[in-house]
Amino acid sequence: MIYIPAGKDKTRKRSIETIPDPGLFHISLSTHRGAAAVPVVSIGQRVKKHQLIAQAGGAVSAQVHSPASGWVTDIGLYPQPDGSKRETVVIQNDFKETKEEVIPTYPGAFTSEEVIQAIADAGIVGAGGAQFPSHIKYRTGTNRIRTFIINGAECEPYLTADYSLMRQYHAQLLQAVALICNVIQPEQVVLAIEKNNKELVPIFEPYLQSLPVPLSILQLQGGYPQGSELQLIRSATGMELQRGIIPATAGVIVSNVGTLYAIYKALYEHTPAIERIITVSGNRTEVCGNYKVKIGTPISHILQTLGISVPHHKVQLILGGPMMGWTVDDHSVSVSKGTAGILLLEKRELHPYNCIRCGYCVDACPMRLMPFELAEAYENRNKSALKELKLTQCIECGLCEYVCPSDVPLLESFRLGKILTNLR
């Protein structure tokens, strides 16, 4: 773990506000891990808010719903934060808020399979960034779940969306936790938060005995990347798992608080995954806060709504956190189910030098990899070496690049290396 200046004071006490809906939504069908969703609407078709617009396209995939009523103006390839272009449904908002009708249900009467199916039908994915379809995670089969970890460890600098969610919607979060406990039957529940957020403890303490199983609060010491799934499992249970191992097989399930809030919205308010909470912040903007925003909202609309200008020669705009997020120059890219923030940071001119093999990246790597050797293997397009050096174990936390005195673009090499070797 490495201490990185947090920069969270600008937004951590801000109440959650709502960004007004844009006139056009750009809803990507393949931001989650796994197969892209398949459109079930056509250009020119009128759609209702909450209507299914794309069906899960495989075993590891997620449904996609319309965040507003209106009509489909295009289905085609549009820019993504990583620079690629992927299939996207464009919906023109009619601002009438005509909703898809649903039959009211009471989640407490659901069987475990019905809860899991409702999560799948709502298109809920991991809100922490990886966007793995949540219904798959909760199908534990014969695995005995000993520990259910609620991930409130928002370790990326500047981001406070999860903190604000826990502070304002703790009761709703715990309703979702109780529901999931009935499904996966864990022996214990651990709420993991940063020690700097200890003021959350008295907010959750009244609920410690209200769940079907015991709930404890784990206060994590400062350090990055403690919110990463594998590092969190180690802190909560002492187990060290390799990346690629399904935690449920070791008796653990981890869910981000944003994911659980989406489950509450789906099961209790009959709202599919069409919105999320993001942080807008950074050291190059005085306009900041935590905001509810619809999935598919272009970044340009958010910036314009908040009155934020972005002089490209001075400001670096990042979608996500400063360590694992994507630098974006095209502001037409939109918010996805895994977008945690929009950050405006001072543009730092990088001057990459040759690797001096100082070993700082090796010391910093939480997965005990050899980052400089991986970078060299990618530079040589050596696929076999990338596999032998366990590129799949890289969690893309960015620590190696953060400590590199030569400004070597290590994280970019690893992301491109996974694409080269088809290891994502």
Descriptive account of the structure:
Belongs to the 4Fe4S bacterial-type ferredoxin family. RnfC subfamily. InterPro entries: 4Fe4S_Fe-S-bd (IPR017896), 4Fe4S_Fe_S_CS (IPR017900), Ion_transpt_RnfC/RsxC (IPR010208), Nuo51_FMN-bd (IPR011538), Nuo51_FMN-bd_sf (IPR037225), RnfC_N (IPR026902). Keywords: 4Fe-4S, Cell membrane, Electron transport, Iron, Iron-sulfur, Membrane, Metal-binding, Repeat, Translocase, Transport. Its cofactor is [4Fe-4S] cluster. [4Fe-4S] cluster 1 binds at residues 355, 358, 361, 404. The chain is α/β, with parallel strands linked by helices and 424 residues long. Among the domains are: 107-268, NADH-ubiquinone oxidoreductase 51kDa subunit (Rossmann fold), CATH 3.40.50; 360-421, no CATH class. The chain is 25% helix and 21% strand. The protein has 13 helices and 17 strands. The chain has helices at residues 112-121, 134-138, 161-168, 170-184, 201-204, 229-237, 257-268, 299-306, 360-364, 371-379, 383-388, 399-403, 410-421; strands at 16-18, 24-28, 38-39, 46-47, 52-55, 64-65, 70-79, 85-93, 147-152, 188-194, 215-220, 252-256, 275-281, 289-294, 315-319, 326-327, 341-346. A 6-stranded mixed sheet has the order 1-14-13-17-15-16. The model has no long low-confidence stretch (mean pLDDT 93).
Q: Which SSEs are present, and which pair or pack?
A:
Elements: E1 16-18, E2 24-28, E3 38-39, E4 46-47, E5 52-55, E6 64-65, E7 70-79, E8 85-93, H1 112-121, H2 134-138, E9 147-152, H3 161-168, H4 170-184, E10 188-194, H5 201-204, E11 215-220, H6 229-237, E12 252-256, H7 257-268, E13 275-281, E14 289-294, H8 299-306, E15 315-319, E16 326-327, E17 341-346, H9 360-364, H10 371-379, H11 383-388, H12 399-403, H13 410-421
Parallel strand pairs: 1-14, 9-10, 9-12, 10-11, 13-17
Antiparallel strand pairs: 2-8, 3-5, 4-7, 5-6, 7-8, 13-14, 15-16, 15-17
Helix pairs in contact: 1-4, 4-7, 10-13
